[in-house]
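Appendix B. Raw example, untouched.
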Amino acid sequence: MLAHTVEAPLILSIDAGTSSVRVRLFDHQGRLVPGVGSQAPCCMYTNAEGASETHPDEMLARLAGCLDTALAQAGPFAQAIGGVACATLASTIMAIDQNGQPITPLITYADTRDTEDARTLRRQLDERAIHQRTGCMLRSSYWPARLAWFRRTQPDIWRAAARWMTLGEYLEWRLFGTSRVSYSIASWSGLLDRHQLSWDAPLFDMLGLRGTQVSTLVDVNEPQQGLIKLYAARWPALRAVPWFPAIGDGAAANVGSGCTTPERIALTIGTSGAMRVIQTSVPQVPAGLWCYRVDRRRALLGGATSEGGNVSAWLQQTLQLGQQEAIEQALQHQPPDAHGLTVLPFLAGERSPGWAGDARMMIAGLRLSTTPLEILQASLEAVAYRFALIAQRLCNLTDCPYRFIASGGGLLHSPAWMQIMADVLGRPVLASAETEATSRGGALLALEALGVLPAVEHIQSAEQDIYQPDPARHERYHAAITRQQRLYNVLITQGEPI
């Protein structure tokens, strides 16, 4: 039972990501309501050919189960829910036929089977111009290459596809019988003209994509309501509640961790990772970075990595390193970069800043004396080096004035990795105390849209530990970054020059 001090309107917030689906409840000030929340794991199918996909109806079933649980936990307070927010893994794609049924799996950003198609598009088109127009490069993470891959390898699917959509759109489609796509989610596709906030006609023509095959564009403050009968009967408290269009999980994480102004850079590491800053205007997108949208008024500039907590989790399981507490204690006593290893941590291909989609993880410098702990340490350091390269392009200054706010379980659950990150960046890293930053960000934007909050920029976010950089360690890591770049330039030839 909830405390009676909870004030309406409440926001039920959905976070559908790579590893799990979460549902949380927030009050009128964007504060997490204790005792209400549900989470279900997601299973992504991967293989040696580069697939990364799941079935969209499995995601829907997990979401529905989480909503069942959360609403039961809320009890009578469910009647105080004034809106439903939704943040999803943004760069996804699937096709439905003319009967509204899925004819493909839900494919994620990490799928690299279209790498050759991305390479072909770069030979045919002016990638620099498209990058500035859409904020996205012609790489395997985005729709142009993915659609070209479908057209080349699965012509029957290409002909049968009545609509192409993302995860958030499909959830709306099943719950309401219709769907829209927010500027936020559309900006992750690589097909949105970021200046006009309209679908990019030249790319549509080049790809053979029709306007009827994509959803109508809306802003994040334009909800719909009126669940179809099946779900209205299942969740009567949500029957007529405004349901806001899905936004990108990265945009939501920035808002939820308080990184809503240009002075605060969000550093998020979950399964994958990202470094992002919200700007009102981005005239020029730096090479190797992207520019998405939070909404019509706010741009999201940054870079994302396919490597993050997945690297740590894979190594700990593969090398059988034991309990997390023991690993943490051992890492904290390891000298920086003393192992003699150079790692390219690309277990799922590379995104920012080089965008070598089919790159693979490489470890150089192994000796008979190398220990499993040293391999883990070197890999965590290697991921941090990739973020340092992104930070250089974001800051473009020797003395970066920004504050780095860390969120995401992959990073926050490892104090040793937090210290490595601060030492590599050479700047203090503040640990966000917002344990559900993505869910909270969606809730705050919904409250802003409802007029309950004047602006998300006015809402403070909780922070806890500050990790201060050690100058000597920073210098050592600076040299290690140079060593990693040399290995990258020798072995990775299809990416953007770093």
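End of appendix B.
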